[in-house]
Amino acid sequence: FRKQPGHITCVQPLPSLQPAAAVANAVIMGAGGKDASQIQSEVKEYYGETLATTSDLKTNACCTMNAPPKEIRDILAKVPSEVIAKYYGCGSPLPQGIEGLHVLDLGCGSGRDCYVASKLVGPTGRVTGVDMTPQQLEVARKHQDAYAATLGYANMSFVQGTIEDLSAIPSDSIDIIISNCVVNLSPDKPAVLKEAYRVLRHGGEFYFSDVYGDRRLPKALTQHKVLVGECIGGALYEQDFLRIARRVGFEDPRVLDSAPIDVKDPQLIELVGEAKFTSVTYRLFKLPGLLESLCEDYGQVAVYKGTVPGHRHAYQLDDHHRFETGRPMLVCGNSAAMVGDSWLGKHFTVSGDRSTHFGLFPCHFSPSADAPTPGGCASCC
Hints:
Blueprint: E1 2-4, E2 7-9, H1 20-27, H2 36-50, H3 70-76, H4 81-85, E3 102-106, H5 112-121, E4 126-131, H6 134-142, H7 144-151, E5 156-160, E6 174-180, H8 189-199, E7 200-213, H9 219-222, H10 225-229, E8 236-237, H11 238-248, E9 254-260, H12 266-272, E10 277-285, E11 300-304, E12 314-318, E13 321-324, E14 329-331, H13 333-340, E15 348-351
Parallel strand pairs: 3-4, 3-6, 4-5, 6-7, 7-8
Antiparallel strand pairs: 1-2, 7-10, 9-10, 11-14, 11-15, 12-13
Helix pairs in contact: 8-11
């Protein structure tokens, strides 16, 4: 994108000049060194044995930066303390307004986010957590019956397995996938995104927080046991993530929020050098045939109804789309599809269709957003 004061002009992204093989090696951690099973075993050991609680972490990559909304904090106050103590997330990927939906948590760990989602989806919804670490799942399952008794219903289940292979989950069966600082731990990120896309229903969303780098790391760092366990060694170069997401079908990834990662350990600081890392919450919608590579103008208008709990006055779709309740907002075709044809549809009214095209949408960023993100206006308004 090209930024002018108060305005961003969309331009067609240049084709990647990076050979496909180089990108593949950068996103598959086992390439040229340790195999995937060895990396997974080391991750299991780090989270199952090395770390006892969050206080053992050497960076803040696996710590939530920003406080969640009050409604989420109120639910967290009722989650068992042992579940909270073994939480290693980096964000707050817990959408509200999801009553009655089926939520899948990839790399659920001790189950903290599953417990919160269990309350958010209510008695008619379902929550499934997937994790490969037995010790973490033991904690998650240990408290689920007592927690269900406090809610008055049981809707949680936990499955041991890897996030690269969700064969236990039927295709087109999930409304929302959440994940909290786990995708970076996978030795095969493309497989994770492909499986996420497969199991989502049309209009479903992968709503997740993870760690990204401002560059590709040397192979030695991507296989460094502590750096990987601390969610740094496996952090994707953000542009590689965007390439993978679009390749599997998640066109127009949207950033909701982000925060810098602080590497505290002197030895790790020396290892990573000038590389910078950021915790980012992304929103990836499964809307095949409706999302385009650039934002196009069809004269569509979206109005938020104010019906998402905790968001009575406004709803933040991403870092540059804030919908005030009842106020008509001109949107591009992609944004119209995200709020009108996804699980969010019941909370919005969208006027107009795509029968008339008015050219490229004049992208503007919200005054409340400091700056557009790398995934911003190159593909979305």
